[in-house]
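pasting input
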Amino acid sequence: MPDQLIFAMEVTVNGLLNGVMYALVALGFVLIFKASGIFNYAQGVMALFAAMTLVGIQDGRVPFGHLINEIFGTDIHYFGWEVPAILAILLTVVVMIAFAWFVQRFIFRYLVGQEPIILFMATIGLAYFLEGVSDLMWGSEIRNLDVGLPQGINDAIDRATFDIFGYGFFIDNLDIAAAIIAAILVAGLIAYSQYTKNGRAMRAVADDHQAALSVGISLNYVWILVWSLAGIVALVAGIMWGAKSGVQFSLSLIALKALPVLMLGGFTSIPGAIVGGLIIGVGEALFEFSIGPLIGGATENWFAYVLALVFLVFRPQGLFGEKIIERV
Amino acid sequence: MFYREAGDFKTSYTADNQTFPIAFDRYRYYFVLIVALLIVPFLINDYWANAILLPFLIYAIAAIGLNILTGYCGQVSLGTGGFMAVGAYTSYKLMTAFPWMDMVTITLLSGFMTAMVGVMFGLPSLRIKGFYLAVATLAAQFFLIWLFNRVPWFYNYSASGQINAPERTMFGFAVTGPNAEAWVKYLFCLFFVFILAWVARNLTRGSIGRQWMAIRDMDIAAEIIGVNPMKAKLTAFAVSSFYVGISGALLFTVYLGAVEVGEAYGILKSFLVLFMIIIGGLGSIFGAFIGAAFMVVLPVVLRNILTDGLGWDTALATHFEFVIVGALIMFFLIKEPHGLARLWSLAKEKLRLWPFPH
């Protein structure tokens, strides 16, 4: 087998695994969009905030420590304890649920019935706000996130592929873990929305707000619920991306990576988010591998967008999106 | 008391249709013009020019441009930064390739170039709507920045990848480059702001502006009553990009002088201009001005209070600024979706009746 083809295969596999990571972020968008029609630009910042909170709790950092020190002239940074990973994750989930309540109570409750684009711009404001809060709360330095996920090259795959092709593939254990966790997460979400009472309420609201209201479903409750779920998905995405490249500001930009995924897959479809993520992941990796060197590299910044744009011109609702019907 | 329509009789259609039908507004407008043209240039110094006045004027042009597209035509764009970069790089290439060309021509040509690029990226708007389009304009943002970063021809193969504005003069005074004086730069920008705002105001209340607004309010209905959506949307993209391009060119040539594209024209710039029009008021030329003023002055004021007044760390003050800007955006969208411009017109309504509101 020619070398180029083998490299291309490796790139494809890595692209697929990257795509899973994109899909993980896109999932949070889809959840909120389906249930409330809000296109939540702040999803990426939520991932950053969740990861920062997780690291902060794990290290026993004092929230707003920097701010308190600056105002009162004190010098406190740590509580002096370390919280085990599982407990820290649970505490972070509590924080994300509190955040969901806050968002619903103070912002989106007042924006019900507004045009989608106004809601979208409000979430851009929310992204700024949350980013500032996250920095004030935990500082803006790069943090290492360690919740015990496996890291480094996967030896088994390396050896297996070496036996077959005479060339060992470099696959990161972390990417495999992310793929498995993403699969569990999606299965869990689908099971939750299919088989529980809350899940049914969620689907009812996604289907038709008015009808859901009229059979006695509390919209407010469901919206807090989906924001919490999106917060938990953001936490998972934040852990994965944070473990991969450190918890830092650039984590909030993964939202920008997820947007083309959504456009491709359709804003309203969970399978769409997964398939879209995989297509973007592979397409991006292969494009960078084949065309990238010819035109200066670093094409992954825009390739996904252009791919999604071209695709949308032919199918404006995305791959799996609901058909857009407009009436006057 | 002063703000009265009574006794202000209009005897012709021209008089009835003028931009400022109330005499007091008209005088205020002339007063502002006189102050801006005849008084400020004598008082201006480098600090005021660089910290407030120049960025205000330049961003005001960008805000008017984006307001035409988003506020009047309803097409949300997140590619403003990328289009500003097109203006900046066009003016750079023109300045270095044709050293004899004067700055007004260069700036206008940069605007036209950006308008063409804008129309190209506006083409998908005929198929894609709402935030699908908003996300699609991000493609323009990322692609353009990448292009200017990676293709050496655009930055004349300079080793740093930066572009630097060479010195150019108008009527013997340096407009660009390190030797340009504050008042010259100010007047140069003011000239563009005045002309462009005047054109924008009259475009938006004419036939083409009404077409844009019809598309914004409901595109299908507009199409049925005979508005050509392709023409309306593409002209909005062209005019808007023209303004944004000029603003980007001025930001580079007059204000910054040296530019690293990802830093000066990144996605944050797109958001900044979007915030200006949200806070100032969607669909209002005056709103673009107050929005730009607000977003330029706010960081300066915050920095003065937090860093100099309270002695906070600069990093902390920056984070605080994020919180405040974000909170303000949400506050405005909830309480006053039409922005500061709406508050202004409410105040004017009240003034007309004052002091006898009943």
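fyi The first helix of chain B runs from residue 13 to 16.
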